[in-house]
Amino acid sequence: MSYEDIIVVEGNHDVIKIKKAYPNANCCITNGSEISIETIRYLKEMSKLHRIIIFTDPDSPGEKIRSEILKEIPNALNAFIRKKDSISKNNKKVGVEHASVLDIRKALDGIYNSEIVIKESNITLNDLYDLRLIGDKNSAILRNKISDILNIGKPNSKQFLKRINSLGLKLDKLKELIEEVK
Fold it and tell me: Do residues 20 and 65 both lie within one domain?
């Protein structure tokens, strides 16, 4: 992560926590789950000169914001915080603001570009079906466990395939991860 980057977060408390990890970080706040057209326009303009890093909460509204930004700015980078690393002390809330400084640094150091597609990736949708990561009653649970290990958020099946291929994950390694979580 560079201090030239713009980190997109959901709220002011997220910014406060990020600034504890990176005091000179540039942040853009979406103000919760509804991201305005003005904010999207601003991020599109800023993406011409700066890297945009999406760092939203590990929940459905956070994924919705990430998806909306990626539709408009497909070259935006992604940083993910694990749900278990971002739970409030009273166990009632989840979000970037509840994560430790160390976990925030790990997440921001682990950014990746969702546009990158490994040309020779050997993982396909059919592989995901064969491995029961799609189409089985427990597929979502299994995908979420693997996603947690890889720190790639909580994606649906298509996003999961895209993210593991973006990471360059090989089929053998995916099989190992499945065995590990069973």
Answer: yes
Beta bridge partners of 52: 6
Are 79 and 147 in a shared domain?
Answer: no
Please state, in angstroms and rounded to a whole number, the distance separating the CA atoms of residues 23 and 34: 26
- DSSP assigned state of 47: T
Does residue 109 carry a pLDDT above 90? no
| Shared domain check, 101 and 140 | no
At 39, list the tokens: 């904010």
The model carries a pTM of: 0.76
Task: Let me know if 41 is exposed, middle or buried by CB neighbors in 10 A (0-12, 13-18, 19+).
Answer: exposed
Which among 66, 146, 72, 145 is positioned nearest to 112, based on CA atoms? 66
User: Do 73 and 35 contact (CB within 8 A), yes or no?
Assistant: no
Whether the CB-CB separation of 145 and 84 falls below 8 Å is answered with: no
Range of the domain at 77: 6-113
- Condensed to tens digits (0 to 9), the pLDDT of residues 71-88 reads 999 889 889 888 888 888
Longest dimension (CA), the chain: 46
